[in-house]
């Protein structure tokens, strides 16, 4: 039985991450954070214990929005430039597969590892909380996991673009950290600053700009999935409905997955 | 059979491979010689289709390697890169299985190959624990996967001990017997000159010379060195006889040494015959490939000097 070279590459990438315990470590991290937030999140209101799915997801979103992009970038930045620098890329490229297949195989393998860790970690936490979740809450929790995966895939795609475009590993790691900083921390601050300076007149522009950042798309996906959360954030009125429709948001997220990968493919094929 | 027709490839302003044409027949063992940066590795990458030639064409069994059937072409080529790097976290069996899957070769081919290159006992060990020579053997086993028709081996014996080199050529000979074409590069000239059928010398991306060792040696007519070993008391007599026959020689502690043209060997022996009793030994030192190579190098340097 022979499998397509693309799948052979994907299987190796995923298996490597399972064998070096990367998947396990990230899954444990996610499970612990999710359980801690579920149990101790409401402590500021003087309560201990699970207080419902909406506040739990709200806190998880704030955590995942920092953590998952960083994890995805670290997972992917080395994948091409690392093999190039160590010297194993030459032999790999001489195999019967195209550069595009090699890149896509690596992406799929790493995405599978990220999926195992994310679904495993949050899944275990969800299983522990299951007795306290009704169908509606479970559905929202599942939605949160799917949106977290999309966020991870988008940053993994950016990580591969960095990996293909960088000449050295050290530069790639620098670029990955800089990108994380820019999209996760600086971007929102700039938007807030702009809103304060320009006022309400161009509110629609800021709403549209939020779509330019996969981290913000992830936040909106979770906020606008629950009316309770919308009122928490008081954001519902600031943005036009069409922009915040889950289908629009998911489409934007898919574009964030496909575009960097496509550009990486073009760059890699030319090298 | 692989054919290169006027292949050129430049990197920026530098012509890494310049108008290289050569044909290597099935079952032939072909050597590529050149200094670092002469274009050997670039030529390998062109033959693999990893790099596209700027002009010229490369045919494998009459079909251009850059056509639609590139996957098929790759499966028929075994490649061992210079200083092969494998994955430290995998065992030898896993490494070979990975490349076998990529090439679409049945996994049952792996264990016999590991045995053939002498790694059967270390098959379960992580490559990270391997010595340079063992990695090279594993890389070679990878190149042999799927019984390729063409083996491209870039400095294949680096890091191998004498026994490893011997094993390597034994395996190469066995593959050749089955019609496999082998192209290898080396900087250890003495090692390959006894073994290759033909060789090509690359200098500055150009083919400086191509042919068998004998053809190349004859082509530039390097003198044969002769050493006459005899007791010091006979040196003057010998030198006088040689001078009478028209040979100039130098006196060394152990005897005399001189350099003669190939066709003068017989005349020298005739001149020495009457004095045979005084000679402890006569040594003819044929020009080595290294000398041939250096000769070509001087010639090509001379050429560029003249044309500049």
UniProtKB/TrEMBL annotation, chain A:
Transmembrane segments: 22-43, 63-82, 103-129, 141-165, 177-198, 233-259
Keywords for this protein: Membrane, Transmembrane, Transmembrane helix
UniProt keyword Lyase present: no
Keyword RNA-binding recorded: no
Protein name as catalogued: ABC transporter permease
Lineage: Bacteria, Pseudomonadati, Pseudomonadota, Betaproteobacteria, Neisseriales
């Amino acid at each position: 039985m022979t499998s397509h070279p693309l799948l052979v590459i994907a299987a190796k990438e995923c298996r490597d991450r399972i064998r070096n315990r990367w998947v396990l470590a990230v899954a444990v991290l996610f499970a612990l954070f999710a359980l801690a937030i579920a149990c101790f999140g409401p402590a500021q209101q003087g309560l201990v214990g699970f207080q419902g799915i909406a506040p739990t997801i709200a806190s998880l979103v704030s955590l995942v929005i920092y953590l998952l992009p960083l994890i995805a970038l670290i997972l992917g930045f080395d994948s091409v430039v690392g093999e190039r620098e160590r010297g194993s890329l030459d032999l790999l490229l001489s195999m019967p597969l195209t550069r595009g297949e090699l890149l896509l195989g690596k992406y799929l393998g790493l995405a599978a590892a990220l999926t195992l860790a994310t679904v495993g970690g949050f899944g275990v936490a969800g299983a522990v909380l299951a007795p306290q979740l009704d169908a509606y809450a479970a559905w929202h929790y599942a939605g949160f996991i799917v949106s977290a995966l999309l966020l991870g895939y988008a940053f993994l795609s950016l990580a591969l673009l960095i990996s293909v475009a960088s000449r050295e590993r050290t530069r790639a790691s620098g670029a990955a950290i800089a990108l994380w900083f820019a999209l996760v921390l600086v971007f929102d601050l700039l938007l807030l600053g702009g809103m304060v300076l320009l006022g309400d007149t161009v509110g629609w522009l800021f709403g549209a700009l939020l779509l330019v950042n996969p981290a913000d798309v992830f936040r909106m996906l979770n906020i606008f999935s629950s009316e309770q959360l919308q009122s928490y954030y008081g954001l519902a009125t600031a943005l036009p409905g069409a922009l915040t429709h889950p289908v629009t948001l998911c489409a934007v997220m898919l574009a964030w997955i496909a575009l960097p990968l496509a550009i990486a493919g073009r760059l890699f094929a030319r090298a | 059979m692989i054919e290169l027709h006027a292949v050129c490839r430049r990197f920026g302003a530098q012509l890494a491979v310049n108008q290289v044409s050569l044909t290597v027949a099935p079952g032939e063992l072909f050597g590529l010689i050149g200094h670092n940066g002469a274009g050997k590795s670039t030529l390998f990458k062109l033959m693999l289709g990893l790099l596209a030639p700027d002009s010229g064409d490369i045919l494998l069994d009459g079909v251009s390697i850059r056509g639609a059937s590139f996957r098929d072409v790759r499966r028929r080529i075994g490649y061992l890169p210079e200083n092969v790097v494998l994955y430290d976290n995998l065992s030898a069996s896993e490494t070979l299985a990975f490349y076998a899957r990529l090439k679409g070769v049945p996994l049952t081919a792996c264990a016999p190959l590991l045995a053939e290159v002498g790694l059967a006992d270390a098959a379960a060990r992580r490559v990270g624990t391997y010595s340079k020579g063992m990695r090279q053997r594993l890389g070679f086993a990878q190149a042999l996967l799927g019984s390729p028709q063409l083996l491209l081996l870039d400095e294949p014996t680096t890091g191998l001990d004498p026994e490893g080199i011997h094993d390597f050529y034994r395996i190469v000979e066995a593959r050749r017997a089955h019609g496999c074409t082998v192209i290898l590069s080396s900087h250890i000239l003495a090692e390959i000159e006894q073994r290759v059928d033909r060789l090509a010398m690359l200098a500055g991306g150009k083919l400086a010379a191509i042919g068998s060792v004998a053809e190349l040696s004859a082509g530039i007519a390097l003198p044969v060195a002769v050493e006459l070993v005899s007791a010091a008391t006979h040196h003057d007599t010998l030198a006088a006889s040689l001078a009478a026959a028209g040979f100039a020689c130098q006196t060394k502690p152990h005897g005399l040494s001189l350099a003669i043209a190939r066709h003068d060997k017989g005349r020298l022996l005739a001149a020495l015959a009457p004095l045979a009793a005084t000679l402890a030994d006569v040594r003819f030192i044929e020009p080595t490939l290294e000398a041939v190579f250096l000769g070509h190098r001087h010639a090509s340097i001379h050429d560029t000097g003249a044309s500049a």
